[in-house]
Design goal:
This protein has 421 residues and is mostly helical. 44% of the residues lie in helices and 2% in strands. It is built from 15 helices and 4 strands. It has helices spanning 6-37, 65-73, 75-78, 83-91, 105-117, 140-172, 187-210, 228-234, 239-242, 257-264, 286-297, 331-337, 342-346, 363-372, 392-400, and strands at 276-277, 283-284, 299-300, 306-307. The strands form 2 sheets. It has a two-stranded antiparallel ribbon with strand order 1-2. Strands 3-4 form a two-stranded antiparallel ribbon. β3 (299-300) and β4 form a beta hairpin. α10 packs across α11 (286-297). It is extended. The protein starts with 5 loop residues before the first helix and ends in a 21-residue tail after the last helix. The chain crosses the membrane at residues 142-159, 188-206. This is C-type cytochrome.
Length: 421
């Protein structure tokens, strides 16, 4: 029996659809925030730089969301407050997670809601992986290719069957027709083969052409074997100590010999650190690499050490992360204004002995980041950027509840002239 008016049914259906879409949107936001801020150091089911995060909502103080908010905003301040976080810091060799003051409590809740609801390992999900790259939902291309070949074979068989049936019919009716043209001389077959060859060849040519100029995995040999794992990882040297211009300039810059010698005037041997292994597993002599630095710097170690910086000669470092000449990229705009962590683009640099290009750095890769990355849009407090005061419409939409956040895309991050002019 039908007791409800149709308008009530439609309203209920619309409300249900709206509710479900709202839940999906929240989950997607959590996944996007996780990919942009957490995935360089954390995975759900394995230890990377930081611990695996699946089930984190049920551990120690993290059962209380307020503690999670404090932790993400300022981990170093929260560590001394509980035994759990003290032991966690000790187990990670003193490595402390960077602070994320730009994330709101709502952003943090979205991240941990996503972690709690993320599918278990082995569940096909598709979409972005924790590293921000697109994960194929399966062997779609292979299946599509197999189906296409099968259909083409079936089509050829049916054409041959049709030709044979027509010949039998003509023979029965005693209709004289010319001898059929062999398939290798048949214009229809030749045209069909040419079309298939053109489509398949075009697909692979286009796929290969898209990758031209991309250097993901590029790992050149440098004049000195400089281990970022030893410096940024084990010794916790801040990236900005060596690459200070990344905070205030377009270029990150290569550290001068003076910066290197600030420490290595006193550190002339590599003795207490972990073994430095190259990509082939061969041990690198750290002390010998420091000696190369002294040779470039014109420094004579030992008693009565002398150093004349004017005689120094900078090593010919090989640039790894290259962008096309027609692309404008500003480090300060991303690190200082956007709060983007170095690992977002450069991978887990603190774990690399020999640095390589970890990210694709393609236009699509950058655009996807602009679509997902949120900006610190609140300019009323000390952490905000008053430049965003010009976006009055977005501020009004946030106040009225039409928007809950603003991404780089919303403020023109997809406009061509932002990167090409």
């Amino acid at each position: 029996m039908n007791f409800l008016p149709s308008t009530v049914k439609k309203g209920a259906l619309f409300g249900l659809l709206f509710f479900l879409s709202h839940i999906t949107l929240i989950a997607q936001d959590g996944k996007a925030i996780f990919s942009a801020n957490c995935a360089t150091c954390h995975a759900l089911d394995k230890v990377i730089t930081g611990p695996a995060l699946r089930g984190v909502n049920e551990r120690g103080p993290w059962t209380n969301r307020a503690n999670l908010h404090k932790w993400v905003h300022n981990p170093s301040a929260f560590i001394p407050t509980t035994e759990y976080t003290k032991s966690l810091a000790a187990s990670m060799n003193g490595q402390i997670m960077p602070s994320f003051p730009q994330l709101t409590d709502k952003d943090i809740d979205a991240i941990f809601d996503y972690i709690a609801k993320a599918p278990a390992p082995g569940t096909p999900t598709g979409g972005p992986t924790p590293t921000g790259e697109t994960q194929p939902s399966g062997n779609g291309e292979l299946i599509f290719g197999i189906i296409s070949i099968i259909l083409a074979i079936i089509a050829l068989i049916l054409m041959q069957v049709n030709s044979n049936l027509k010949k039998l019919s003509d023979d029965k009716e005693e209709i004289l027709r010319p001898e059929p043209v062999p398939f290798w001389r048949n214009k229809i077959y030749i045209a069909l083969f040419a079309v298939i060859l053109f489509v398949v060849g075009g697909f692979y040519v286009a796929k290969s052409a898209i990758g031209l100029g991309r250097q993901r995995g590029y790992q050149p040999t440098q004049p000195i074997y400089f281990s970022h794992k030893v410096h940024a990882g084990v010794n916790q040297i801040n990236c900005l100590y060596c690459h200070g211009s990344a905070w205030e300039s377009k270029h990150a810059g290569i550290p001068t010999l003076n910066i290197c010698m600030n420490c290595h005037k006193a550190i002339n041997a590599y003795e207490k650190g972990p073994k430095i292994l190259d990509e082939d597993g061969k041990e690198i002599n750290g002390t010998a690499e420091i000696a190369k630095l002294y040779q470039y710097a014109g420094f004579t170690p030992g008693p009565g050490a002398t150093w004349d910086p004017s005689k120094g000669k900078s090593p010919q470092w090989v640039k790894i992360h290259n962008l096309p000449d027609h692309v404008y990229f500003n480090h300060a705009q991303h690190t200082r204004v956007g709060g983007v962590q170095c690992q977002t683009c450069h991978g887990n640099i603190q774990e690399m002995n020999k640095v390589f290009q970890a990210s694709e750095l393609s236009m699509g890769w950058c655009i996807n980041c602009h679509r997902e990355s949120k900006v610190q849009f609140n300019y009323n407090d000390s952490t905000g950027n008053k430049f965003y005061s010009i976006y009055e419409k977005f501020h009004n939409d946030i106040k009225s509840g039409k928007m809950d956040s603003v991404t780089v895309k919303d403020i023109g991050g997809l406009e061509c002239q932002k990167c090409h002019y």
